[in-house]
Amino acid sequence: MDITVHFPIIIVLIGIFASFIIPAANLYKIKIGEIISLASIALMFVLGIYLRIQLAIDGPFTYHIGGWPAPWGIEFKVDYLGAYMVLIITGIGFLTLFYATKDLAHDLTENAQGIYYPLYILLIAAMAGMAITNDIFNLFVLLEVSLLSSVAIICIKENEATIEASLKYLILNALGSAAVLLGIALLYMITGHLNMTFIAVELQEVYPQYMNVIIAAMALFLVGFGVKAALFPMHVWLPDAHGSAPSPSSAVLSGLVIKIYTVSLIRIYFQVIPRAVITAIPIMEIVLWLAAIGIILGSMFAIVQDDIKKLLAYSSVAQIGYVFLGISLMSFTGFQGGLIHILNHAFIKAMLFLSAGVIIYSTGLRKINDLKGIGFKLPFTMTCFTLGGIAMIGIPGTNGFISKWYLALGALEAGRPIFVLVLLVSSMLNGVYYLPIIVNSFFGETPEGFDKLKIDPVPWQMKFTLLVLAFGVVFFGIFPSLPLGILESATEYIYGS
User: Fold this and answer.
1) What is the CA radius of gyration of the chain?
2) Which residues lie closer than 8 Å to 267 by C-beta, 6 or more apart?
């Protein structure tokens, strides 16, 4: 038996199986749970690389769970977008967990650490499954698993702020789940299928008869996935949740979780709904303007924050707007720009949140005004933070510039130069809230008593994670051809479907 044909389901099962055995391992020693978690995600990443190689050789392929073919069985489909997301999810997920093995010991009780690892790996497994499932109800189930595990890794600190934030996250995202489920029910009602390929084929036949039903389903999907991805103005849960959670949770939530919901919406809009429906109604125009407003207002909200993690959380509201802007421009290059920003922002935002985590770990400081001179105490960490900040602004040589360059070209290709102006204004606003932190950390007048500030040594695991993320920010900024080559195939595949 060739086990490699089962790799699509094995990637998900590794995470699910590990999440069950880690609690038992933790009863003996927390360290064993850490090792199992890291080994599991590393294995998922390696299998993801194999799937990407297989994809390059054979093109997109499907896997039928239990040998039951669609439309009766559940189908996984490994295509260019799915394989791309699996690599990002498992790669960034591994790095963040490697960092977390030291940070969590400082931030959580031993019991909470024992619970954190299985929840984290379950979240990674659910997102990997969402990236490659071709069954819309299976997508919903995995979406719920990701929601519950996300809530749990926010409230695990067990203080008032995280519990309040996680409750807000749970309530609003549950409403989003209900909207998604209603949308699925409407599509099932008019097609009789849950397999996305079969739904797409059936909709091509029946859409003139059920135009209003399809539009209602699209609106429900936009609201449902929009809430989960924090598309403006449905972002209100994000700043509290990402700002108060443990730093590794903030990194994975901002860097990965909100992106997988965006990818789910892309799949439904561009691979399930007939293109004639998409172009007949102004829904992408609505998404485009919501994204543009979110880009500007998210940055303006970030400017007035005095907490470093809250600032980064509001910045994520603006940054997810870039992804939505790219896909809603309805141009090939814009679409590529939106997709590459998923990768670039994952590296940048994970590095920024984890840098903030190092500052909090080492000094206990999180108020921006207290960070003057911190660059002399933590030079490596603040150098990484500086790199992340200038990447967010879009300085050439960083991957943030590549994202903005392709989005700007996409806007021009679509004949919408106004959105180039939005990108320029956004870059200036990014500079307004990142540059003062960077400048003051190295050149600012230090507050009274700063010399006596106690600095806890930073473990090498946390520094190493920042170093790898920083390398990614520069490498993909100087050599963007690798992800762009993959994304060209993904964009052609989605536009051609």
Assistant:
1) 22
2) 81, 196
Angle at CA 323, nearest 5°, toward 321 and 329? 95
N-terminal to C-terminal alpha carbon distance within the chain: 33
The pair of structure tokens assigned to 357 is 């985590």
Q: What are the distances in angstroms from CA 19 to CA 38, 102, 144, 463? A: 12, 20, 16, 27
Whether residue 1 is predicted with pLDDT greater than 70 in this model: the reply is no
Assigned token pair, 313: 């959380």
Per residue in 91-141, pLDDT (tens digit) is 999 999 999 999 988 888 888 888 999 999 999 999 999 999 999 999 999
Alpha carbon of residue 427 to chain centroid? 21
List the Cα angle 193/199/203 in 5-degree steps.
125
pLDDT tens-place string over residues 280-335: 999 999 999 999 999 999 999 999 999 999 999 999 999 999 999 999 999 999 99
CA dihedral 270, 82, 125, 252 (to 10 degrees): -80
Q: Tell me if 411 sits within 8 A of 417, measured CB to CB.
A: yes
Residue positions counted in the chain: 497
> Which structure tokens are listed for 208?
């003139």
Phi, psi (rounded to 5 degrees) for 175 = -65, -40
Q: How far is CA 331 from CA 7, 258, 296, 483, 494, in A?
A: 34, 23, 22, 18, 12
* Amino acid found at 322: Y
Write the CA distances from 428 to 43, 377, 382, integer angstroms. 41, 28, 21
Phi, psi of 367 (to 5 degrees): -75, 135
Beta-carbon neighbour count of residue 259 at 10 Å?
A: 27
Predicted local distance difference test score (pLDDT) of residue 385? 96
